[in-house]
Amino acid sequence: MQEPAVPPPPPRANRRAFAAWVLVLIVAAAAVAVTLVSRPPGPRRTVTVTGTGTVQGAPDTMTVDVGVQTTATSAVAALTQNNADVARLESALLAHGLTRAGLQTSNLAIYPNTNSQGRVTGFTVNDTLTATTHRLSEAGAALDAAARTVGNDVQLNGVSFSISSQSRLLGLARRAAVRNAHAAALEVTSASATSLGAPLSIVDEESQSSPIVYAPTSFASAAAALPIQRGTTSLSVQVKVVYALG
Fold first, then answer.
1. Claim to verify: residue 157 and residue 177 sit in the same structural domain
2. pLDDT tens per residue, range 222-231
3. Are 136 and 199 found together in one domain?
4. What is the DSSP letter of 36?
5. Number of structural domains found in the chain
6. I need a surface site. Which of 36, 110, 172, 209 has the fewest CB within 10 A?
7. What is the Cα–Cα distance from 207 to 75, expressed in whole angstroms?
């Protein structure tokens, strides 16, 4: 009996061509897969709002610029008189609750005085001390003592009040600012028929304070006691919050 004929194996060249074709298909499929996976997601929808929180507190620090102005026929005489006045001024302030650390020279000027013909008729010396005190109950008495000690040579250039330790108040203002920003974001999403997601970023803006400032005045007509009303000081914090939208 004759055995069936076995077909000869395909030529080696055909096998190589088939394998190359299969490899091309695999590479093409992989390229498509990579393209689909690496496609970047669409932009996330967000809303950015700003919130402000303001709190008020009682000042515990007073700062005042006290100037001494003297005039004489010579610069030496004017400076000598000014130095004596400043020394008495410092003694009066130190005797009423201020400290050496709270006194600082903030301005010193010597300039000539001239008449209508341009001739020098004398010299004026201005010396200004910036005084800072935390003993507000004695502040009025200290300023009154300075006026009585030096007299008309003393000038009050300005009084301001501030809060020395603001950490607690700034924390309250910051929490109020975040609540204010959240309320603003809810208003925006409610008006646009979208849902509010989680905050993505919160930026704490620079805090601001609003100290009470009194206008410049003079001691020339100082009464028996200077009234000192410290009032309140406002502290504000602003935050910028970015929320995700649902």
1. no
2. 444 566 677 7
3. no
4. H
5. 2
6. 36
7. 46
